[in-house]
Amino acid sequence: MRAALKTFLLASVLVTGVARAGSVDPLPSWNDTAARRAIISFVRDVTTPNSPRFVPEAERIAVFDHDGTLWAEQPMYVQLAFALDRVKALAPQHPEWKTTPPFSAVLSGDLKALAAAGEKGLLDLLVATHAGMTTDEFAATVSDWLAKARHPRFGRPYTETVYQPMLELLAYLRANGFKTYLVSGGGVEMIRSFSERVYGVPPEQVVGSTIATEYRVKEGVPAIVRLPKVDFVDDKAGKAVGIQKFIGRRPILAFGNSDGDFQMLEWTTAGPGPRLGLILRHDDAEREYAYDRKSPFGRLDKALDEAPGKGWRIVSMKDDWKSVFPATR
Amino acid sequence: MRAALKTFLLASVLVTGVARAGSVDPLPSWNDTAARRAIISFVRDVTTPNSPRFVPEAERIAVFDHDGTLWAEQPMYVQLAFALDRVKALAPQHPEWKTTPPFSAVLSGDLKALAAAGEKGLLDLLVATHAGMTTDEFAATVSDWLAKARHPRFGRPYTETVYQPMLELLAYLRANGFKTYLVSGGGVEMIRSFSERVYGVPPEQVVGSTIATEYRVKEGVPAIVRLPKVDFVDDKAGKAVGIQKFIGRRPILAFGNSDGDFQMLEWTTAGPGPRLGLILRHDDAEREYAYDRKSPFGRLDKALDEAPGKGWRIVSMKDDWKSVFPATR
After folding, report:
1. ipTM score here?
2. Fold adopted by A29-73+161-320
């Protein structure tokens, strides 16, 4: 019993104590650099009553991009890896795919032909792998896949190629009364299937791209069916629109890593009162990846140029983070 | 200072104590009838650890229709009253409206001609009064209007024609770890402008119909502009779709009052484990209104017939509620 109690107390400290107690480092995987100090100083300001920069708890909304901000997006978006694997898994039921692009390109592993299929090709893949089932069935398929799939370079489940410093930041913000949201260009249902377990972010605090759905009752059993039609693209200007549509309040902190996050950062930081905009710079080829202006995934170009003028702070993976991924279990 | 302390303590009791303490009645405006006992027994079950009907806090999602469930929807939807008043306010800038239906019908007070304009006419009114401004401007217009407008029969601001027993129920559920959501056929931005103040429901927990919006930057200042196009209708089957899209989890409690809530009730109560579906019956012509199958606003027909078979409980305004509206201040 005493050991159990000790474990319990230790767990309590790990979960809440780290972030709250002044004497314990709330961000142990962050180096003591200007970026870390800016975050801590912002949080201290907005949580100090009677401070001119105090923000009531209800308005402490923080939004985080997902791909490349909370988990690795190289060598390709995880959702794309999922779609490619699904095409392979579903191929026996679709013999015609062997000769039909873009499916044939996926099945023969011809990534050049796949790239040549362009947006139309990607949309065909999306529809074939993300629609035509109920939301419950889709969530189960995603969970099964995530349990088995491994990142090609790191050999870990994708849910463990998340960034340890960001997990700490999310917990630190929540311990200080922030409501943390994911705002992703990716499909919302995929992320919702693991956001609570992995990030401590409940499904209702995930904003993302949506597919059209329809409510159907079959033999008395209702279901929500995913249709082969894109409903909303939560990327670029869509991120600001999505924030207003799903959250209905302007955030005071935004953290992104690519040009797809430009408008989310702009909308967040242009508001009155204290605001913090942060951009994660992938400059760490050794521990993760180094990419920016020319990457097909997570291109960072315009936002990098405009960051100084807009007061957005660049977080360098290489210099600002002690570690990148969580310790393996 | 002592008086201030006393006020503070009293306020604390009013806000949280009433709903929590076992010895204090959590629902003082409800008569001690079967409906009240069913609610209390449901809440006790899902919050009792080790009970076979226990539901973890994260899954305690409760959804409430708005018009006719939380506030009066007679003699017409409040949003329609707003639209009609806006037409009158904007008329000087639109001399052509004097001869253009449906605006001419509104300006001459010809409700028959207005009704004859049908859905197309209502859409024209909606677009003219709800689009063409930023989301911030729209919220300010709604707030100004709500501060001045009065309910034609009760002479109160619309935000005080809310139902006292429902305010108590919302607070009681939250005190028991529920997350309370509004799921309305009405426009989401209108409700969000007062949901926190009136119901204790923050903007991000309001699901409703949406108008298309666009992110625009004018002279360096970003804004979200409301476009003359309906984006999503959160009514009937749309309520189940909206719940999945905005919340991403199936609720365990749903409270509605009309056929527009049928699918929300069905989707909620068809799930596994403990579920509670409730329908408010407007049978109190003396204190509020009596209407059901033939009402143009809040028609209750199919849901009334199917309630017994589906296990949905009817709450009678006349029999189950001690009082209807909050005491005037």
Report:
1. 0.91
2. Rossmann fold (3.40.50)
